[in-house]
Amino acid sequence: MQGRLLGATLGFAVVCSSFVLAAPASAAETVRPSAPAASAADGVVVTDAGRENGVTHVMDRRVREVVYRGDGREVHLSTVDKKLGATSAAFRRFVNDELTRAWRQLGGSVECKQAPTLTVKKWRADGFATIPNIGIRISDCGGGGYHALYVKTAKGWSAPRVLGAQEPYFCTDLLGYRIPGGYSLGECYPDVGNDPVRYRARTALPPATPTYAAETLVRNVMASSPVGADRWAKPDVVTELFEARNDGMQLSVRLCVTSSDPTYGQYLDGARRGCIVRAAYYEDPPPALPVYAYEWMMPLKRAALGRWRGSSLTGLGGT
Questions:
Q1: 0.90 exceeded by the pTM?
Q2: Backbone φ and ψ of 196, nearest 5°
Q3: Which string of DSSP letters, residue by residue, matches 31-63?
Q4: pLDDT at res. 48
Q5: What are the E-state strand segments in the chain?
Q6: Fold annotation for 210-318
Q7: Which burial class, exposed, middle or buried, applies to 32 when counting CB atoms under 10 A from its CB (0-12, 13-18, 19+)?
Q8: How many whole angstroms separate alpha carbon 146 and alpha carbon 162?
Q9: 224 with 2: CB under 8 angstroms?
Q10: What are residue 233's DSSP bridge partners?
Q11: How far apart are CA 297 and CA 279, in angstroms?
Q12: In the predicted model, is pLDDT for residue 81 greater than 60?
């Protein structure tokens, strides 16, 4: 997972803007209705990814889906309108804006205007698109590349940072955006561990609680999964916990509290929630008592998709 790289690979952001486009459909594509497994009596199902990310998709059994042949349809500036004509105007505006932004990040020269490329494999009218490659096709203009998923939220089409990578996505990120099974890479990383697993779109999301976040962080550190750990705490926190683990300490979460806690609330540094992380050194494995133990208070704050994320570590002392 060390090679994992998000949308910053090429040095450009992924934010929706506006640019008017229109085009006819192309022959080298399949346009078909998509059929969700469940639907209400009127044929419409509303699935809500939660208040935290505001992702709401209305899926109709008659929704249009465009599937391009082979590896997908590659476009660059000046070809978006022509090659993606079967998709919506709003989607084409977004793609054009992404390519324009990439070109400007490369310096905005005339020679490099057609360098940024974006490949679309699948598009659905209810708000999903599979982008198997975003890259630069003129080597003199730059390099790098990654794959992404685009989703439509209440604010329009967007490219979430957590859905741009060089390796499989994280399963809970896919679930958080309600990505259909056919729009993932097939496999994704679990919250803990380095081995991808099969993505199951109907799996329930794990609890978005401080306790789950703190315990998942500790489990990743103990499992030597630094990229997984980075999702649950800031880099400085992850580094310090890994140093403790590398020194032979066993990490665990002893207690999670709120800011109103009479004993530990004062250590939360303005945060509403926090958890006590314990590092213990054993000469004999548990249940033997540790030779030495040390504790930190880790304040947690809201992060992407409603998750909690550790923001710092404050020492509480040792025994």
A1: no
A2: -60, 150
A3: EEE---S---TTSEEEEE--TTT--EEEEETT-
A4: 34
A5: 29-33, 44-48, 56-60, 64-68, 73-75, 116-120, 122-124, 128-136, 145-153, 156-158, 164-165, 187-188, 197-198, 250-258, 273-281, 292-302, 308-310, 314-318
A6: Nuclear Transport Factor 2; Chain: A, (3.10.450)
A7: exposed
A8: 12
A9: no
A10: 310
A11: 12
A12: yes
Using DSSP bridges, classify how beta strands 56-60 and 156-158 pair: parallel, antiparallel or unpaired: unpaired
Domain boundaries, the chain: 7-198, 210-318
The model's confidence at residue 20, banded by pLDDT at 50, 70 and 90, is: very low
**pLDDT interval class at 62 (50, 70, 90):** low
Q: Which residues of 122-157 are buried (b: 16+ CB within 10 A; e: fewer)?
A: bbbbbbbbbbbbbbbebeebbeeebbbbbbbbeeeb
Closest CA to 98 of 110, 113, 116: 116
State the chain's maximal CA–CA distance in angstroms.
Answer: 73
CA distance 30 to 69: 8
DSSP state of 305: G
Q: Which of the residue ranges 11-25, 90-104, 153-167, 190-204 would you say has the lowest mean pLDDT?
A: 11-25
* For residues 47-54, average pLDDT: 32
Phi, psi of 289, rounded to the nearest 5 degrees? -75, 145
The chain-wide mean pLDDT, for the chain, equals 82
